[in-house]
Amino acid sequence: MASTIQVRVDDELKMKSDKLFKELGTDTTAAIRMFLTQAVAYNGFPFEIKINNAEYSPYKKMTEEEMLAKLEASREHVKRGKCRDAGEVISDMREKYGL
Predict the structure, then answer these.
(1) Are 36 and 45 in contact (CB under 8 A)?
(2) How confident is the model at residue 62, as a pLDDT?
(3) Residue 15's pLDDT is what?
(4) What's 60's DSSP letter?
(5) What is the per-residue pLDDT for 85?
(6) How many whole angstroms separate alpha carbon 81 and alpha carbon 3?
(7) Which residue ranges make up each domain of the chain?
(8) Quick check: 54 pLDDT over 70?
(9) Is the predicted pLDDT of residue 57 greater than 90, yes or no?
(10) What sections of the chain are H helices per DSSP?
(11) Residue 33 CA: distances (Å) to CA of 6, 12, 19, 26, 39
(12) Of 55, 56, 33, which is closest to residue 46 (Cα–Cα)?
């Protein structure tokens, strides 16, 4: 037997989520099922819950100048040896998170 869940959301949020999930090859209903499945599997939220810091967001739009400055800073880190081999990072993540 299947149960129905009804959720009220802002029209704009619904429109944006429908568009996003369509681009990802699914729909909002399937995405909600995925969320619920993962919540049960994780025995909690399947993602980190935290206060949004508006100062730093990886999703904040950057100007071309900001992007070029970040790229230059990355190049400087590489020159100074302030970087790690991707294989080492992946190995550390596997060990830390049991992957």
Answers:
(1) no
(2) 81
(3) 93
(4) S
(5) 85
(6) 56
(7) 1-48, 57-99
(8) no
(9) no
(10) 11-23, 28-42, 64-79, 86-97
(11) 13, 21, 17, 11, 10
(12) 33
